[in-house]
Model the fold of this input.
Amino acid sequence: MVRADKIFDERVILADGARLALRLWWLPSPLPPSTHRFKYALFYGRPGQVLVLFDNERGKGDHKHIREQQAPYRFVSPERLIADFWAAVRAIQAEEAG
Done:
């Protein structure tokens, strides 16, 4: 089994009931078809409802889910990933606020 080094793994339930789960690991080698050495899953949603999810998985690579839509994601760096995730979360929150 390949050993991954956890960079962070945080889970939070927000006051409105939404959930955040932010997980990032450093891998000894890339997880194909990704070419970088990070494994990540950044989630914002409610029980049974994905609002924002940025993740990479073997066979699928880097991608994002915004509500029901899935699209490729161009991974640049962990810092950019986190900034892009929070921008997507803020956009959903703004939509919901009306």
